[in-house]
């Protein structure tokens, strides 16, 4: 039995949060039932069926009689904290960052998305001169404190502590009057058909705005993020100009990227 307060909470959660919770149930249980979800979230069965239809379209679930089953290779993982991400594949992220930072030349205007790989890029920019960097990442801005030749701009907005990133209308508006040479975009998931995606709707919206104001979109990610899909799409894969990743990327993903016109730079593990 749920008390009245918990029922009220479930009534007011948004569509995005409800779908994220449905995904978590799918991951934990392997399947969900429409009637159970309807009762739990205090919404109609029509609303739940729409949620499941959306998740099926994203390749996350497969509809079944009375509910849905998890769709395995593209099950989104739950979002780890920045601290957790920082401890994963650190040497690999630094190798990717070394390749990325070589692309930044004097006079360039650059966006560094929030994230642990872009943080490693920022750490390597201490000797750069005459570069402007815009970021929505608190950790990225802190890493640039030592880069005396880099002018640092921040988007501002609401701080999301899980990712140490800023988002919201203020962040979106801070980008709209600028034009940048390149965007270095960290990703939670990338799939050739479903595109680049992330866990959080607000971050996805801000990332899309970043893509709109950047001449080149450069994705920096390790190969484990391929053939995965998160809930909120950022852009189609075909819009990426370059991917910097490690040599463990699958042959199919590598071929698919190149066939789409994406330049791929590989680093060794």
UniProtKB/TrEMBL annotation:
Protein's UniProt keywords contain DNA-binding: yes
Domain HTH deoR-type: 15-70
PROSITE patterns: HTH_DEOR_1 (PS00894), HTH_DEOR_2 (PS51000)
Family matches, as Gene3D superfamilies: 3.40.50.1360, Winged helix-like DNA-binding domain superfamily/Winged helix DNA-binding domain
Keywords on record: DNA-binding, Transcription, Transcription regulation
Database matches in Pfam families: DeoRC, HTH_DeoR
Keyword S-adenosyl-L-methionine part of the UniProt annotation: no
Protein name: DeoR family transcriptional regulator
